[in-house]
Write a structure and sequence with these properties.
BirA Bifunctional Protein, domain 2, 16 strands, binds adenosine-5'-triphosphate, 15 helices, Rossmann fold, alpha+beta, about 425 residues, 2 domains, binds magnesium ion, eight-stranded mixed beta sheet
Length: about 425
C-alpha cells in the first residue's frame, strides 16, 4: 500500500483522457438544457443521516459501501455515494418544491467502498437528473426519452437496451414482501450468506444477488409485478403506452429491482453486454415517498443516474468526435518575446484556436519535436527571414505537406479557413 499512489479504486483522469470527458460533459450539458433541466451543484460531503435515511439502512450502499468519518466536532459525515439524497436535502432546505415541476441535473464524483474492477471504482462519476412534484406517467417517459436521445446522439442505441419494471406502491410492497418471504423460507439453507440475512431485513434485494445459486432460486420466485395494486398497474400501463407512441423500445423485466430502498412504481435501467459484468450504464426510477421521508412535503419525485466511466468505456470502442480542438504551435529562431507577441496577437484574432509557443528554443528540429508532442495541427515558423519580410511559414504537421509562406496579416484569416475546411 504505497502512499505514493492514488487510493485503490480512485483514479486520476490524465491529460490524454480529459478531452473525452470534456466532450461528453458538453454533450450532456447541452442535452439537459434542451429538456429544460437546470444544473444543481452540491457539496460532496453531507451528514451521514442524509444518506442512511434516504437510501435505506439495509442496502449495500449504506451497510458496506459508504465512506463515513467523524468531523472534528463529533458529527458523523459521509462522502456522497449517490446524488439523489443530497438533491432532496437541498431542495427541501431551500424551499424549491413550490411550484411543482422542478427539473434539475447534476454531475460529479461519487464514493463507494466496493471491490474495484472494470466498471467499478471507489470514486466514480455520475450524471443524474431529478424531477419533483409531478406524478404523471408522462414525466417518467420524458426522462426516458432524454436518455434515449443521448444514446442516439452518441451512436450507442444498438449497444444499450432499456429494461423497465414497476415496484408498486408501499402497500403493494408490504403485501409482496410477505409472499416472497413465504416462498424463500423453505430455500433458506440454499441461499448465500448475504441473501440469508436479507431474507429478514430486505428480501426484495435478494433479486439483485450476483450469486448463481441464489439467482436460480429467484428465477422461480413470485414476481412483484403480479401483486401490483390498481393505481400502480395503471401508471405502468400508461408508461408503456407512451413509450410505444414515442417509438422507444423496451423490455419489461419483472425481476428488475433497484439497489436503493427509496424507489416505487416505475424503475428502469439501460444495460449492455459490451462491458463485461458491470453492464448497467444508466438507472433510475420513481421515489414518490422520499421527499416526505426526508422531512419535506409529500411530493413525488423521479430521477436517474448514469455512470460516466462505464459510458466512456462503451464509447471508447467507437469512432467518435472527441477530437482535440484546433491547435497551432509557434517555432523558429525569432526572439522568444517576438514569438510570445505573435501568439498573443493570434489568440486575440482567433479565440477558438489553441495556440502554443516554443519557449525553449534550440534547433528547429527539437522545436518541431515539441510541436508534434503538443498535438498541434499546424506549426507556425518565424525566423529571421520571415521577420525581415513580415511573413510567416505554415506547416501542416499531420500531412507534412510543403510549407506555405503567408504575410503575417493574412495568418488569422488563413487559419480560420483551413480549420473550417478540416472540420468538414
Ligand atoms: P451496480 O448494480 O452496477 O452496482 P448500482 O445499482 O449500484 O449499480 P446506481 O446506484 O443505480 O448503481 O448508480 C447508477 C449508475 O452509476 C450505475 O448504473 C453505474 O453506471 C454507475 N455506478 C454505480 N456504482 C459504480 C461504481 N462503483 N463504479 C463505477 N460506476 C458505478
Ligand atoms: Mg452497486
Amino acid at each position: 500500500m504505497s502512499q505514493r499512489q492514488s487510493i485503490r479504486g480512485m483514479h486520476d483522469i490524465l491529460p490524454n483522457n480529459t478531452a473525452h470527458w470534456q466532450w461528453l460533459e458538453q454533450k450532456i450539458t447541452a442535452l439537459f438544457a434542451r429538456y429544460q433541466f437546470r444544473e444543481i451543484r452540491l457539496p460532496i460531503v453531507e451528514h451521514t443521516e442524509v444518506f442512511t435515511r434516504a437510501i435505506g439502512q439495509t442496502t449495500d450502499v449504506v451497510e458496506k459501501e459508504m465512506y463515513t468519518f467523524e468531523d472534528r466536532n463529533g458529527d458523523s459525515l459521509s462522502l456522497r455515494p449517490e446524488g439523489t439524497a443530497g438533491v432532496v436535502r437541498s431542495v427541501i432546505q431551500h424551499g424549491l418544491l413550490n411550484p411543482p415541476g422542478l427539473k434539475v441535473w447534476y454531475q460529479g464524483p461519487m464514493f463507494r467502498h466496493e471491490r474495484p474492477q472494470r466498471g467499478r471504482q471507489r470514486q466514480f462519476h455520475q450524471f443524474g437528473a431529478e424531477v419533483f412534484g409531478l406524478a404523471e406517467p408522462a414525466v417518467d417517459v420524458e426522462l426516458i426519452a432524454l436518455v434515449d436521445r443521448l444514446w442516439r446522439e452518441l451512436g450507442l442505441s444498438d449497444d444499450l437496451s432499456l429494461e423497465i419494471n414497476s415496484l408498486g406502491d408501499p402497500e403493494d410492497r408490504q403485501r409482496y414482501r410477505q409472499e416472497l418471504v413465504d416462498y424463500l423460507l423453505p430455500h433458506e439453507s440454499e441461499l448465500d450468506e448475504d441473501s440469508k440475512r436479507r431474507l429478514h431485513t430486505n428480501p426484495l434485494r435478494i433479486f439483485d444477488s450476483k450469486v448463481e445459486k441464489t439467482q436460480a432460486i429467484m428465477a422461480d420466485a413470485p414476481r412483484f409485478f403480479e401483486t401490483l395494486g390498481e393505481p400502480a398497474r395503471e401508471h405502468f400501463a400508461s408508461v408503456c403506452t407512451l413509450l410505444d407512441q414515442l417509438g422507444i423500445q423496451y423490455r419489461v423485466n419483472t425481476g428488475l429491482v433497484r439497489g436503493l430502498d427509496y424507489y416505487c412504481r416505475t424503475v428502469f435501467e439501460w444495460v449492455t453486454d459490451k462491458l463485461g459484468a458491470q453492464g448497467t450504464v444508466c438507472a433510475g426510477g420513481r421515489y414518490d415517498g422520499l421527499v416526505a421521508m426526508a422531512g419535506g412535503k409529500d411530493v413525488p419525485g423521479i430521477g436517474f443516474a448514469m455512470g460516466a466511466e462505464r459510458l466512456l468505456d462503451l464509447l471508447s470502442s467507437k469512432e467518435h468526435e472527441a477530437g482535440l480542438p484546433p491547435s497551432v504551435y509557434w517555432v523558429g529562431s525569432a526572439q522568444v518575446a517576438t514569438l510570445l507577441e505573435q501568439a498573443e496577437a493570434l489568440r486575440t484574432a482567433c479565440p477558438d484556436l489553441c495556440v502554443g509557443v516554443d519557449l525553449v528554443g534550440g534547433s528547429l528540429k527539437s522545436q518541431f519535436k515539441r510541436a508534434d508532442r503538443s498535438l498541434s495541427r499546424f506549426a507556425l515558423i518565424l525566423g529571421e527571414q520571415e521577420i525581415a519580410n513580415g511573413t510567416v511559414q505554415v506547416k501542416d504537421l499531420r500531412t507534412k505537406e510543403d510549407q506555405h509562406t503567408l504575410r503575417q496579416e493574412d495568418l488569422a484569416q488563413y487559419l480560420a479557413e483551413r480549420l473550417i475546411e478540416l472540420k468538414e
